[in-house]
Design brief:
about 100 residues; alpha+beta; two-stranded antiparallel sheet; 4 helices
């Protein structure tokens, strides 16, 4: 079974960044993406400013093994990058088969 990344969207200030632990075990995220799709898009995800609340660190891209906060600063790049990928994927066949020399180390 492929691994998936779950995404919850909250308005700025709706929830404290430290209030994420209750989301970790839930399976009702409004957006879930297969990790293989995210790996395919990996380089462009690094353009998104993010925050790792588990380590209290700022960075770029997704934390693959834990929570990632995409705050207001990263919201615009996140939206533009995912909208661009959605447009690219919409040009393909109904059932996508992603090929490429991508891997995870």
């Amino acid at each position: 079974m492929p691994m998936k990344h779950s995404f919850w969207l909250f308005r700025e200030g709706e929830r404290a960044y430290t209030e994420y632990r209750d989301l970790l075990s839930r399976h009702d995220a409004p957006v879930r993406l297969d990790d293989e799709v995210l790996r395919y898009c990996f380089d462009t995800l690094l353009w998104i400013p993010t925050f790792n609340p588990a380590k209290n660190e700022r960075g770029n891209g997704l934390n693959w093994w834990g929570p990632t906060i995409i705050g207001q600063e990263g919201g615009d790049p996140f939206h533009r990058i995912f909208a661009a990928w959605a447009h690219v994927f919409s040009c393909g066949p109904r059932q996508l088969q992603l090929h490429g020399l991508f891997s995870w180390q």
